[in-house]
């Protein structure tokens, strides 16, 4: 698949063939001139799916969604100048949430930098510390030695995207004219020098799956108590059922309950784990009963859940906490008495020695209080007819088809999911961007997830959707179907629960920032189907079966201020 028409084409085709041999299959390309050699090489390669997206910010988040859903390195390509700067929000999220993106920014050659040449900025280390690797690639040459250098540099970048942890890598790629594939004799000698052996060893490197980590011995003190908790934070495993089975094994081995974030797949494989606790945020709001719930040890899997109540409680009681995580990054925002175990969950289970069954009274106490809180939520929410946005998160597990990929927007939706998401056994796959916790790129990320899975649902508020409305430009460039569940409460509902809400003005104008958009017209402008949902019955009908193609927008109009008051009262009463 090498293109010997000129120096740039052979250089770019070696670049792309190296990635193809390593198993990379998806590239998202934004239009531009300086990136022409890379664009031609990617679209001409039969193993690559090349997706054109106009807006680089949307492109970055679309690629983020594909990489989240697939777990595989996904490539971004843009031209020189400020184009790459628009990737920055997606790169930050990829770094913070550990998603493998390979960012390729085309650039001017050295002689055209810093001399007022058009569409040129300083692209060196453009993303600062938010990448796991960076290289300023040499200018293309028709030289076998230089092509070997290129092959090795690309291999190294692919490796850095995944080991020792997942994340983005940036390669800055300068090109001289001619950028178009105009024939030149300069590359002709390479035709006789290169054959399939040039790439053969790369096939041995294309190993799928997570990296393996050397297992260290687990301290004997771990688990030597009946008063222990397992806290499972937000995680997007490629094999969610296997992940849930492993946690169930750990819970049964130790006799400890499992506090599961709403963004964890655990709540969607509830039958596997009879000691699953989902209402911890509600229970821990009541000081009169938290004393009995204090653990002696905690096993934290990945990052902590979203719950601020849980974090404050852990900071206050400061139990011995074992953090199981292989990323090598600090996952302790409360700075407690923690011991980091750089091993996998499976390795932890294998290295816990057999022991006598612990007293289960502590675990049973958690389970009984959790059952009671769930019942109170059901009694409050089940008969509720008006469109309370919290009920949407409570009801969704019963309405969505099994195994639905669900992208959950930040701000209020992600918190409602933690508070209200019901336990179920439908294998729903939650996706989210909790690395930097921003609302940027919500729609584009969801479109990327839908492109990989062919069907997906996005749960979002109105501001998060509008912040990425350019994502609608990508509707025609992806396959599969996306249903958007839009909670339209005309503003930033998350701010209603903060102290600043008492100060109006300036609260409504500068914090809630209501946007009076007719979403039916926005949808029509992009060829998106729009439907207003006015009852829970109509929502049930709309979600009974997801379409196979296109994008549709299901709008639920909610009352921001009334919902905030009802939510606050419910959170306080249900765990009492």
SSE topology sketch:
Blueprint: H1 7-21, E1 26-29, H2 36-44, E2 49-52, H3 56-70, E3 74-78, H4 88-97, E4 101-107, E5 133-136, H5 144-160, E6 169-174, H6 189-193, H7 202-205, E7 228-232, H8 240-254, E8 258-260, E9 276-277, H9 280-283, H10 287-290, E10 297-301, H11 308-317, E11 320-324, E12 338-341, H12 345-351, H13 361-381, H14 389-399, E13 405-408, H15 412-420, E14 429-431, H16 442-453, E15 455-461, H17 462-467, E16 481-488, H18 507-512, H19 519-525, E17 529-533, H20 536-543, E18 550-557, H21 560-574
Parallel strand pairs: 1-2, 1-3, 3-4, 4-6, 5-6, 7-8, 7-10, 8-9, 10-11, 11-12, 13-14, 13-15, 15-16, 16-18, 17-18
Helix pairs in contact: 1-2, 1-5, 3-4, 3-16, 14-15
Walk me through what this model shows:
The protein has helices at 7-21, 36-44, 56-70, 88-97, 144-160, 189-193, 202-205, 240-254, 280-283, 287-290, 308-317, 345-351, 361-381, 389-399, 412-420, 442-453, 462-467, 507-512, 519-525, 536-543, 560-574; strands at 26-29, 49-52, 74-78, 101-107, 133-136, 169-174, 228-232, 258-260, 276-277, 297-301, 320-324, 338-341, 405-408, 429-431, 455-461, 481-488, 529-533, 550-557. The chain contains 21 helices and 18 strands. With 576 residues, the protein is of the alpha/beta class.
